[in-house]
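Notes from hallway chat w/ T.B., transcribed later so I don't forget. T.B. wanted the structure written out for a chain they're using in a teaching module, and asked if we could keep both sequence and structure tokens in one place. Agreed to drop them here.
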Amino acid sequence: MIDLLAAATQVFPVSDAFPTVDQDYLLQARQMQALSFAMHIPLVCFGVAFPAMVIFMEWLGMRTGKAHYTAIARRWSKVMITLFAAGVVTGTLLSFELGILWPGFMSAFSDVFGLAFGLEGFSFFIEAIFIAIYVYGWDKLSPVKHMLTGIPVMVTGLTGSFFVISVNAWMNNPSGFDVVNGEVTNVQPWAALFGNGHLWPQLTHMYLAAFIVVGFLVAGVYSVAWLKGRRGAYFRTAMVIPLAIACLAAPTQILIGDWSARTVAEDQPIKLASFEGLYETTRGAPETILGWYTEENTIIFGIEIPKMLSLLAYHDPNATVQGLETVPPEDRPPVNVVRISFQTMVGIGTMLVALAAWFLFVWWRKKRLPESKWFYRAVIAAGPAAVVALIAGWVTTEVGRQPWVVYGVMRTEEAVSGADGIVFGYAALALVYGALIVATLWVLRKLARTPLPPEIAALEPGFGADAGAVSGDGSKEGGRSGTV
């Protein structure tokens, strides 16, 4: 089998092309960047998927004339702008980190990805303008005009992430430039970013993940209310629509995941070998579930399925899969980190598909929601689990590319800053994110306790004008609805 990494180094003459930086805190710099990604990516999911759900709910209200659809859209729009504001903070910090922590990468390749970051900036400003108009224009614009102001919010949420993911796809499969005497030349940014074979599977995988994460998180909130007996039209609709979206996206993700994995197998064989802890190049390679990769280059306590890796990666049970042995140890990622994150993503994804199958089967065969309390408890757990799977997927992608920041071209140690103070910056960043989490949860809590409109509360069991409502902490509150 052709060693694709070696082929890449022939295309880009990278031997000693970029100097290694004298930095004692490379690991801390990577962890600092990872912390920001872990904070930002769930918020990106809400930027991608939530506007579509909000606008769809508003459209249902216009189409049916039923007030509870519009009431849900109004409340969700406030959640949407709250999470957008939190995303602005995390996204801004990420932008600064790219320049501060990785100056070698930014200076060498800015001509390649600068176009995408510039277009992402335009998307962000348009989104910021229209999300404010949408949220504060409910009583100032006609229903049709108001809904139309939400369309740019939905579109720019998609395009902004599209441009950023195009850069990440290029980092995993670099093209569109040459390296001559340590200088990046002959740059073709359009071809590099938007003609990249990794873009479309990675983009589709992320977009579906966004709808899965947001759908299960939102449905989980209303499942709590459902278990407390709040089962009127408002709560039923607010739970069922995001749940249905997530349950339709979860099985589809299996097909997209297969597409992404086969792309990795073709272009990043060492990353694939790290997924499975495959040391020796093997014809008819097995799939090993669970287990621990040892210093002796074997997996202990794993469950081996013969020929399954070859079948999954190449749709041929006798295909040859390249092993870790084909590159020097310094060119391999940390195998156990990659394996555990990959198997966490796949394991949680499989459980979400099982939950989706439960919901879709009952809905299709019996035309009703599942009655078991365990189903709704599972939905409550599915939201946080989906976030864990999302972050595990990005750990798989980013750590699996190591030691390269640009695969086969520039090492991470060549991109990092040589400045002091990384440890102090890491601590400060953790404090900022801690404060942001507290502030965001406080705002969301305030929104959750806002009373329902009187015309909606009158139709909800236990939420009439004279009824004391059960608040989020289980206490009685006369005359106000502690709701979501």
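Follow-up for T.B.: The radius of gyration is 24 Å. Might be a good example for the class.
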